[in-house]
Amino acid sequence: MTGGARSRLGLVWRLGAATTLIVTAFAMTGPVLAVLLQQAGRGTAFIGAFSMLPFLMVGLLTSLIPRVLARWGTVRTYRAGALLQLAGIAGYTLSDGIAVWTLSSVVCGTGAAAMWNTTEALLAEEAPPEMRGRVMGLYQTALGAALALGPFLPGLLRLQASAVLWLAVAMVAGCLLLAVTAPAHEPHAAARPHTGTLQALRAVPWLALLAFCGGVFEAGLGAVGAAHASASGMSLRSATTVAGAIGVGSFLFQYPAGWAADRYALRRVFTGAALALLAASIAMGFAARAPWLLWVCGLVWGGVGGALYTLAMVQVAHAFAGRATAGGAAAMITGYTWGGTLGPVASGSALEGGGAPGLAVLLALFALAALTAARRAAAAR
Fold first, then answer.
1. Of 25, 99, 162, 375, which is most buried by a Cβ count within 10 Å?
2. pLDDT tens digit string along 276-315?
3. In the chain, domain spans
4. Closest residue by Cα to residue 218 from 21, 26, 15
């Protein structure tokens, strides 16, 4: 490996570490904010709508980020996103007004759009093709560890809500420090033809649908699940562990998913993942009688939902090999974030209107959509 290649991979892992800090802060504060809203008398539909705001911003802005990357470059774009994230998390911490929290969610989502697209595009470009699945799986494992650890930190550290938010400020500040001290990056794809987000979506629509379903299950259910557990009588510390189960699943499944992507036809792997989500969705209908199913279903939702996104990213990196990868990565992020955007609203409304059985029916429909997309997606090999 040349010195330049080592430097580029070093930047990948540096920004990957910074992103892991951001995800830890997000996973820690999201359930806490949801529980605080529930304790203030807000319903699960409202909480779901509030939780969707960062994902809504990512979904709206992702198609623009490849142009920003082309103009500003990797590191500068990432730094701007980290600064916006710090401003957003400070808003949560310094105020308890819903208007300020709403604005903070919008700011956080804008920063996340810049950071997420930058890291994923950089990883897709720099990962060696013969081990792309494992590299991406390892990166997603780190993010899964952050998703797993974040919701448990309030209980493990015995923190009250205000202390949790200040800890999140410190984490995001650490992310910004890593970004500010990062070296510049010269992309391989500077002279390659540009692929826009819409063009990529038209080229691989079934992959985008799989990424969407992954977003629903991995990113769209944590806050609503925690609020439902709180409404069922659990304490803040216990309720947030329901979201933690989603993170634990994401952590455990990512590297095995990447390993499978390097060895088997992705259509087979996608199909197995969709069937697992369908089984977990049906099981959710019995959670009122067996509350332990909240954690079991969360484990599957986080693990398999996250795997869908990882596998879609691996496939899109293969599909757009030899071209600028930012557009292809943005297409998958668009699908995933719209899943994360609509998931909390749809699941919160289903839970409020039909209880656990109503949520089970909705999630089963999403799982069936994933199964349909899995059967249509082209094999990777």
1. 25
2. 999 999 999 998 888 888 899 999 999 999 999 989 888 8
3. 3-376
4. 26
